[in-house]
Amino acid sequence: MAVSTLIGAKIHRREDPRLVSGRGRYVDDMQPTNVLHAAFIRSPYGHAKISRIDLTEATKAPGVEAIYTARDFEKILQGAMPVTNSFVADKKQPIGWAYIAKDETRYQGEIVAVVLARGRDEAADAASLVQVDYKPMTPVVDIDGAVAKGSPTAHSGIPDNIAWDTTVGGGDVKAAFAEADVVVKQRILQQRLFPIAMEGRALVVEYTPIENKLTMWSSTQVPHWVRLCLTLATGIPESNIRVIAPDVGGGFGSKIHIYPEEYLAAAASKLSGQAVKWVEERSENLTATHHGRAQIFDIEVAAKKDGTLLGYKVTQYVDTGAYVSVFSSFQCSAYAIAEGAYDLKNVEFRTVGVLTNTTPTDAYRGAGRPEATHAIERGIDLVARELGMDPVEIRRKNFTKKFPHTNYLGLIYDTGDYDKALTKALEIANYSELRRRQEDLRKQGKLIGIGLSTWIEVCGFGPGQGHATTFAQIAAETLGIPYDQTEVRTGDTGDTPFGYGTYGSRSLHVGGSAVLMSSRKVVDKAKKLAAHLLEAADEDVVFEGGRFYVKGSPDRAKTMGEIAFAAHRDNLPPGMEHGLEATTYYDPPDLSWPFGAHVCVVEVDPETGAVKLQRYVAVDDCGNVINPMIVEGQVHGGVVQGIGQALFEEVLYDHETGQLKTGTLREYMVPTANEIPEFVTERTVTPSITNPLGAKGIGEAGTIASSIAVINAVCDALTPLGIKHIDMPATSDRVWKLIKEAGK
Amino acid sequence: MIPAAFEYARASSVEEASSLLNRFGEGAKVLAGGHSLVPLMRLRLAQPKALVDINGIKDLDYVKADGSRLRIGALTRHVTIQRSKVVRDNLPILAEVAGEIGDNQVRNLGTIGGVVAYADAAGDYPTIALMLDADIVTNQRTIPAEDFFQDLFTTPLAPDEIVTEVVFPVASGPHKYIKFRRRLFDWAIVGAAAQKLNGGWRIGLTNVGPTPVRAKAVEDALQKGAKPEEAAEHASDGLEPADDLRANPEYKKHLARVLTRRAIQQAE
Ligand SMILES: Cc1cc2nc3c(=O)[nH]c(=O)nc-3n(C[C@H](O)[C@H](O)[C@H](O)COP(=O)(O)OP(=O)(O)OC[C@H]3O[C@@H](n4cnc5c(N)ncnc54)[C@H](O)[C@@H]3O)c2cc1C
Hints:
Chain A is an alpha+beta fold. Among the domains of chain A are: about 5-15 and about 460-565, Aldehyde Oxidoreductase, domain 4; about 415-460 and about 590-744, Aldehyde Oxidoreductase, domain 4. Residues about 460-465 of chain A have low confidence and may be disordered.
């Protein structure tokens, strides 16, 4: 890409002044007149039969306009909610997910009735008066329990809890393991997490009967998908449905799914003939919004004595929760980058989906890629330890070095230079000095650990991440107009063409490229028009700094503004249509593969087991950078979420009742700024060749790399005690228990 | 997150508050900083019939050094205790404890009377009150801390009784409170306090039982000349901590010993 001024500039996010000064417009800010407030009655049990629903008292409560149950919705909503199986060919038992439970509930939080009342408080009061008689059944709440022989099933009447069981592979895994000098095996827990967006979900929906029109404001990452799904469920034509995502206060994947509430609120508006509003409460958010991760990995790595990796076997168990959610199969995408940054062709990856009586799981920041990275990066450290090698040395030895690279599945990695990123990270962290210091401190009984993660990811197949800024930078630069004169509109199906939404770090790679291509189309047309107005041949016109002129006479120029105006007047070249607009649907020819290397330093208190983060260095390569400030922000946020998983967060269920034990943010610990060390973030730049910007995604990088960098550091710190592995979160009590057992 | 409906009245004196409580009868509650009560109401775990707001009673908000005693009004906010020069001079450990409660919002609104009356096992002031033999003064009587913290969330307060003051001995000698938690603004998983007073040690523990604990066995061992590391081994004598998500009983007992030793060693 040519040297440019705007692309690559550190420009403050243009959405920030509005958002940080309280002028954002979120769904809850929408206040239609005569709106009814919805409250959802949810099952308190993991698994139960509904024997009776008594609405007598609730119906009499002040302000109540209507209460609906499954029977009422049957008239409006067809079939069941859609699930995808694109990644999983031979799903064993596709289980429909009803919009609302009728006879049986299968997770705490599943909806059984909807109250509509004039006030939000009245809806809440009436909800507490709805009497549901449940007959609790024995729930299954975790993978081990659900796959055990003779375990109860998550749904009545299904033969077992397996939702899918698929194996992919490449090379000759058997031969690789036969040839190996060492084989390491490890079970790795990817604990269940809450996505915890700052803003929960929220809806305002209005159905107008005579025109048969539906307008929905939803805090969603995928407005066009919501529209499509509403059409499928209600039969209202897509052209009559408008879905608007105004400011969205975070998603991290939790808003890419089309939820029961969206269908039910739309149907309730149709049934009641009035606008309906619902704003999720935090405690509701923790049961009703999908969860992330919830997986177990069994890995086996085969290697030669010199550290050369030979083969890799993985079994991934995904706890799907009670239903296979819309994008849940994203989580299996761990298989796509199973071997990480290493040139390893003999790989076998089995993925097993397991139904349980818990909140459905779905994509959470990184979806599949943090899990895959965690597994291979843990595996390679274990091999290094077995062979007495330095973790740096074994990585260098096995890095993929030639690009484009075809991986074990036939996917093509566009570009990369993994060693360069690692070398830079090690330099910044002062690695050799750190190792020396670690030795000295160990002699004094102090436990310092250094953890590495060299990560790669795949993106472009697929969130607020500063689009208003980066897209504007691209358009302004290409069109040669001032940045301030650009405006970015997204999120309203009423005035934007179909888009898949924002997930999988795809926005820049795909959306940004489309902005670039549209801008180029505009420039091409403007140039033809300029040539006509300047009475010159097309080839003789130069476009520079926002001005068009004939070669050699820059004083007689037309600005982009003048051309835009002229495009609506009569003096057009023959055959040219009015206007200066362009639409591009960009489908990238191939995926882009960002990568990087992170180094984390921790200290473990040998007496209490407390882990203290001392230092964190992140070197990431996301190709050409449109706005370094936004890249840094995305990396910081991602790293913090990964640290959250490594050290703090864990969703726990009660085995007897199937209820959350971590039902509030007092028990579920999201880290705060206090717990986070200072970061050093740096970059290497290896442009992508699969999109015209040369950019790669960055939204998920931090999360993909950081949980394992922290865990490898904790394991490294515990090495002198003979401890090889620790599961997440590495809380002090868990560390202490390992230390105590090691001392026996 | 929306509480059930309740009545509300604001009192401007302790007498008025007490008579309002009487008038509303059973199910009425005092509202101080609201940082324990309101979260419970929002989850509908508490559904008081009426709230009597005491935030308007200005003469319950004070810190006074009174000879060998430090008197703190029930409505004194954590932030006031944290910053007060009088507290720093006369009972510095209390200022340090206050500075480690919750986050800014909690410290700006939460009150010492509220912490004491609520009697959460993880409350920090109760440990200091118990180990230093503080008095809890109400509009009806004076209750020694030893008799006040009876069980989890259980005190001898009558429904119309209002805590007006907490009275501590002055103690400015070596002291340390170590609060072990995962995040800076969390409640203690275990807390250990050491304070030199009248030539002896006072040792207290937070969140190792239904009430705060005074570690008399440790105090006695130190009195008999044991080294801190020896004495601290007694910190878990007789403890029966509850199992919770953050720590099992065995780990809590272990922490009690380690933190007690560190508190004594680090006291200054
Ligand atoms: C995020 C968070 C973290 C926290 N961390 C800690 C911590 O680490 N350590 C700690 O000790 N506390 C902590 N707290 C609790 C905080 O200190 C509360 O403010 C305190 O427990 C209650 O004080 P309050 O003034 O807010 O009382 P309120 O919430 O108003 O009342 C609590 C109870 O006491 C009663 N009450 C209040 N005042 C009186 C009175 N004068 N007489 C009689 N009854 C009264 C009320 O009726 C109610 O039952 C935390 C709170 C939050 C929200």
